[in-house]
Specification:
It contains 7 helices and 21 strands. The protein is α+β, with helices and mostly antiparallel strands and 358 residues long. The chain has one domain (25-354).
Length: 358
């Protein structure tokens, strides 16, 4: 079956040839070895009938078929996230003139929150060969490079997700264009002169400039170092709509089950008015049968309701009224391993047939 997701990527895939490079910068797995991509699901402190540590996490990459509980804790210097960021911290890449790095977060560590920026969080580190894009949901993270790897204590309470993708240099030229729409808060960055001519968008964002945009949103196919296809959906603050319902579900032509932080009185109800729907997930069940409620989950992700579509997206925005006016994005995949891992977590959602206002 040819899905709409596949059609979105097909033309771009014909133009892309995957050439594996020998450069070292990449996502790193639990043991510190290079991987094409990985996903981490940091578990919340409070689960149904249980209080945890708030620093345990599940791990997934292309080499494993299902979620694995990590033997590490996310607030230690071991594990996939610490191993990946060590390339910036320990490798002194932030002092290099041959690599670009960017730390962005609308709630950065040690700085005042400013709502004018996009509701988006992430890290870029790459050189002329390749590097990684880490997109995540954790406020006050990561720490400034000179401080080394630190996990914020505020990041223990709620569930969080992190998606790391390894890309060759050419893909970062496209990612830079996508970041313009997000208008992220760059709180620490470096775009050396040797690369700034290729990356004027990053150089301007690093200098604090807000870009002028040709449209209010952008969709861009991206291909990882090994040819894994992703689609980046990004919207600016001029696209005043729910990214899940008003855009992504309609483009991918699939009904979405959406997990996002559901703070009381601010959540958008499940939307069933458009041809394709976006329905709120209310409870998650882990492979261990432990469950937790969405109001303890600060992650933002969605899956297609229909198993045959196999769409999974991770990103920035909650289904919340105030965030209709915020920039943010989603990174989507039709990888069956990723889809199965996330789809099995859905324990309860507000469906359109229930006719309930949640």
């Amino acid at each position: 079956m040819v899905t709409h997701f596949t059609l979105c990527c097909q033309i771009a895939l014909l133009l892309f040839t995957c050439l594996v490079c020998a450069a070292d910068i990449s996502c790193r797995n639990e043991e510190g070895n290079p991987v094409d991509w990985f996903i981490i699901y940091k578990l919340p402190k409070y689960k149904v009938g249980e209080v945890g540590s708030g620093v345990e996490y599940m791990y997934l990459d292309e080499s494993v078929a299902r979620w694995q509980m990590s033997k590490y804790m996310i607030n230690t210097s071991q594990g996939a996230i610490a191993n990946t960021l060590k390339q910036l911290y320990m490798g002194k890449a932030y002092m290099s003139n041959s690599s670009v790095y960017v730390l962005y977060n609308d709630g950065p560590p040690d700085l005042k929150y400013i709502q004018a920026y996009g509701h988006t969080k992430g890290v870029l580190l790459f050189d002329h060969a390749k590097g990684f894009w880490l997109s995540h949901s954790i406020p006050h993270f990561p720490s400034f490079p000179e401080r080394g790897y630190l996990y914020p204590s505020s990041g223990k309470l709620n569930g969080q997700t992190l998606l790391c993708m390894t890309y060759q240099y050419a893909q970062f030229l496209k990612i830079a264009q996508q970041l313009e729409y997000l208008y992220p808060r760059f709180y620490n960055c470096s775009v050396p002169a040797a690369l700034s001519a290729d990356l004027p968008q990053l150089a301007k964002l690093c200098a604090g400039s807000k870009p002028a945009l040709a449209s209010d949103k952008s969709m861009q196919p991206l291909f990882s170092n090994r040819g894994e296809k992703f689609i980046s959906f990004v919207k600016s603050d001029h696209f005043v709509d729910d990214i899940y319902t008003g855009w992504v579900a309609q483009v991918l032509d699939t009904d979405l089950l959406v997990e996002s932080w559901q703070t009381q009185g601010r959540v958008l109800p499940s939307n069933c008015s458009l041809p394709r729907h976006a329905m709120n997930i209310k409870r998650i069940q882990l492979p261990t049968l432990v469950r937790f409620q969405s109001y303890y989950d600060h992650s933002k992700w969605c899956v297609s309701q229909a198993y045959e579509d196999q769409v999974t997206c991770l990103g920035d925005l909650n289904r919340e009224r105030a965030q209709l006016w915020r920039g943010g994005g989603l990174i989507c995949s039709d990888n069956p391993v990723i889809y199965k891992a996330f789809r099995q977590l859905v324990d309860w959602y507000i469906s359109c047939t229930m006719k309930l206002n949640d």
